[in-house]
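Ticket #4471: structure output looks truncated?

Reporter: J.K.
Steps to reproduce: submitted the chain below (167 residues) through the standard prediction queue, then opened the result file.
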Amino acid sequence: MGMRFFPAVQDLRDEVVLATKFGFDLAVQPLGDGFDSCPQNFRKVAENSRRYLRTDHIDLFYQYISDPKRSCRGRRGAVGELITEGKVRYFGLSNVCPQYIRRAHDVTSASALQCGYCLFERDVEEKVLPVLRELGIGLVRYSPLGRGFLTGVVKPASEYPADDLRS
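Returned output as attached by the reporter:
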């Protein structure tokens, strides 16, 4: 039997919070450019995530980004059903504006918003944070170390690919 470096999620289930996202259309290239926030996709992603992670529920299920083809209303039944069934505990949003946060929260109560927030990305302070406070939604920051700039290992801009925002 080989060494086991990472215990299965099921072995740590009571010690971790699992968060994952839905809303990608993996058939669109480049990967990450396509959206699919139809209710059938929510359920498919949730079921696949639960199966791959070998867990009975996802703690925080984020909508990756607002899907320009779909309204918040189309999500109501699907996410609500997953929560009612105990397959998802909380619903989250990612990278959306204050207006979208309000509309989405009216349809399905959001528990968290994930967005970039650091010394270099502070625009959330003026418009987003007040809405989150008002609605009781938590903030989950990504890139808190300035996309590497605060780690001491950043490279000159010319060494990053053109599609990397650090360039």
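Triage note (M.O.): checked the attachment and the full token line is present. The helical segments are 9-12, 39-53, 76-84, 98-107, 124-135.
Status: closed, working as intended.
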